[in-house]
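Can you please make up a protein's amino acid sequence together with its fold in token form to help me picture the idea?
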Amino acid sequence: MVTADLLSRARAGDGEAFRELAESHRRELQVYCYRMLGSIADAEDAVQETMLAAWQGIGGFTEQRASLRTWLYKIATNRCLNARRAARRRPVREWDVSRFEAPVPTPRDEPIWLQPFPDALLDVPPGPEARFEQIEAISLAFVTALQLLPPFQVAVLILRDVLGFHANEVADMLEVTVQSANSALKRARASLQRRQPATGHQPPPTAGSPAEDAIVAKFARAWESADLDALVALLTDDVFIAMPPEPFGYEGRDLVTRYCTRQFAAAGRTYALVPTRANGQPAFGLYLRGPAGIRHAAAFYVLTLAGDQICGMTRFEASVLPWFGLPRSLPGR
């Protein structure tokens, strides 16, 4: 419950009181909007719109109907649903596959707006009715699958199965009946289950465990030393590379090996990798050495692990590096 004094002051137009009430929820709202939208940039916009709408509507808020947290989630949900509907009206971008060198990538059914999310911002524990653990519910595979579901189903699934809100709370947020919300949840669960690939992969090692650290260290050494054999030894047979915002990628060890061969073969191309974490997964800022030894940001990679191997790599543009506290360039050694 919010304090009556702060709420009274906020209703009277005290901006500081409102910030004290609302700002403690900002980070969890950002994670929620990211799951809804798949883009940290879009999520930040949605949270800003949520806070503005809450400030403008605080005079009409009463705890007799819902808690402040639930009220903020209702506003954020509406903003995200509007953003998802608007995204469907975006013009389709034409991509020229011929500009790629061999091997030519193949189309991938993934959202081209997908962006990575820093683990440093993940501190929102799930509610008592949540079906997913926090790390599982922020993984790139999970967030990608959410983007392919209808917006209303996504909202119900996240609110119920990820955040653990009660059915009646979710129905109130979405202004529908409990029966309608439960029906959407059932359809969302079924669609999500169908999208889970039957790969037979082993589960990934525990985040931050010695087993995970060992795989990550081997990957970094292999890439920095351009040791193709060592890198290929880490890959599963069905490994893939996705490259948002481009709707293409490479699937299978042979194509991924040829892609990595091309990365290593360029004359004078040497890399430095700076480790971090994104979406509960190991990640790296990738830097390419330039004149005077200065290494410039080239890309951002997130690894998907299976047992003691790598089953996926997602390559993002270097523009995401600042979100992870990584510089645009590294000084020469």
Remarks:
- The two ends are 55 Å apart (CA to CA).
- The first strand starts at residue 106 and ends at 107.
